[in-house]
Amino acid sequence: MNTLNNKKDFLINNFLKSNFKVSKFNINDKFIIYGYGFLGKNALAGFKSINKKPLYIVDDNKTGDIFIKLSQLSKIKNKKISIIITIWNDKVSFLHLKKKLKDKGFKNVFSYKEIASKYFKTFKKYSMFDNPKNLIKDKKKILEAFNLIDKDKDYLNFLKILKFYSNHRFNKIVFNKKKHVSSLKKLINFDTIVDCGAYDGDTYKEFVKSNIKFKKYIALEPDKINFNLLKKVSSSKKLTALNAKIGKKKTKAKFYFSGEQSTIKKGTNYDLVDVLEGDQIINRYKKNLIKMDIEGDELKALHSFKKTIYLNNSVFLISTYHQQDHFYKIINFFNGISTEFSYKLFLNTPDFVDTMLLAYPSKYNHAN
Q1: Which residues, 6+ apart, have CB-to-CB distance to 174 below 8 Å?
Q2: 189-213: per-residue pLDDT in tens?
Q3: Cα separation of 94 and 172, whole Å?
Q4: pTM, entire model
Q5: Residues in contact with 181: Cβ distance below 8 Å, sequence separation at least 6, in sequence order
C-alpha cells in the first residue's frame, strides 16, 4: 500500500473511532415530539412500544388532547424537558429549528435520527435508519470507496457524510444547493436522460431551465398519482413519461402509491406497474445520463444497468441518502464493473437530505 493509501487508512480508522458519540437523550426523560409527519408518527409508535408517551406533540395542523401548537410551546415552564424534532426534509433545516427552540430557552433539543441511532433495537421497526455500528463492520468497504475519490473537496464531503451516519447528529456544514447541475453542464451533451423516480417532473424542469442538453428524456414514475402530474409537465416530443420502475428484468410488480415525493412504508393502495430493464431502454453505446432517486432501491436498480456501466459511456447521478451505506457501496459497485469511473459527492442541503453521487467515465474528466 502506498503512502497516500496508508494515510487514508489511518484517517478512516481514526474517523470511525472518534465520531461514535452517543446522544445525551435518556429514554426515561420526559419529552415532547416536534412534528407529526411520517417520522413523528413512527417516533410515537416506537415510544409506545416501550410504554413511553410524550407530554405533547407539536403540530399546528392537528387537534386533540396531546397536540399543541407551536405558539403554545413558550408557555411550558420546564425548559429542561427534551424536545425531539422529527422533521427531516429539504425544506426545513434541523439546525434552524434547534436554534429557534434554544432561543425560546429549551436546553435539550434532539433529532429523532440520533435517538433512533442510540436506541436502535427499540426504534428499528419505526425508522428508516440503519445501525451506525454497521459502519465499523464495513470499514474495509468504506476505505475501498474512499481510495477511489481523488479530489480534496470530495474527500471532505465523504468524511462529512461518514461523520453524520456515525452519530446521526447534525452539524453545521458548507453545502452547495444543486451544484450537481453545474457539474453536469460541464460534462457532455446527452443522447438520452433516464429519470428513475421522476416524481412530478421536477428534475426535468430543472434540467430544461439549466439548459442541460439532451435529445430524449425518459421519465419513469411508478406512483400513479405522481405520474398523472408528470404527464402534465410538457408537451415536448423529447419527453416520454412512463408509469413504470426499473428492475433486474422486465416484468410487473406491486407498487404502493401515496402521491408523495418520498414514500417508504407500504400502505394498502397499490397497482401492478411495469418493471423495465435499464440496459434495454437506452442505446448503451451512446452518451446517456441515468438519474436515480427511488427511496433506497438505487443499488438494486443499478444491477439493471450493468452492461451500460461496463461500456463506460454513460453518466450516473444517484441519490445516496436513503440508506446509510449507499454513499460507499454504490462507488464500490461501479468499480467492481469498471475501473474507468470518477466520482463526486454533492451535499445539497444542510441536513444531508438530497445527498447525491455523480459517477462519470474518467474520459469526461472536466467535471469540476
Answers
A1: 347
A2: 899 999 999 999 999 999 999 999 9
A3: 10
A4: 0.85
A5: 206, 207, 210, 212
